[in-house]
Design brief:
Blueprint lengths: L2 H16 L1 H12 L6 H13 L5 H25 L2 H15 L3 H14 L3 H4 L11 H7 L3 H26 L14 H23 L1
Helix pairs in contact: 1-2, 1-3, 2-3, 2-4, 3-4, 3-9, 4-8, 4-9
Length: 206
Amino acid sequence: MGVLEAIGKWVINLISATGYLGIFMAMAIESCLIPLPSEVTMPFAGALAASGELNLILVSLTGAFGNLVGSWGAYWIGIKFPEKIIIKFINKWGKFLLLSEHEYEKAKSWLKKYGNPVSFFSRLLPGIRTVISLPAGVARINFLQFSAYTFLGSLIWSFILALIGYKLGENWGSIKHYFHKLDLVIIIAMVAAVGIYIYLHLRKKN
């Protein structure tokens, strides 16, 4: 059994034993830069909702709140530690967290280019969705705006994955290894995110 498979199994056991609390914990841990894949957490929770054990809306909200709380941890790290120490830590330990300096710099450049709304649409993108909180803290962007954008983006992401698990029911596990390749979902999320950003930007100018 590989490491990622073992982690996925642990997440499933956690949710099976504790329900909503397990969803919250797993999503908070993931959002605090520790690689617990939401691509396993939320579809499995959605499958439990389909069986009647959980509620799909509550599952989605729980996942989003977990992501939000976890993002506060990464945001706090960005505020409290100098950037050179953060980058040094990433270069030394990032491989264990599936985090690279390249991903950090990409998130940082997006934040600089697009501003606070990047906290929203980055939450819809695998690979960068949990990284953005770190440079957001370093840049000291407005905490309330950061929290609002993070929650909304996380809610959409959580609902999409939970809905997939809900629709698949007991068969959700048959495609769990391919969630990172859901190009259509990613493209739709990107188009929606860009549209929302343009709308907010134009409204601000007006």
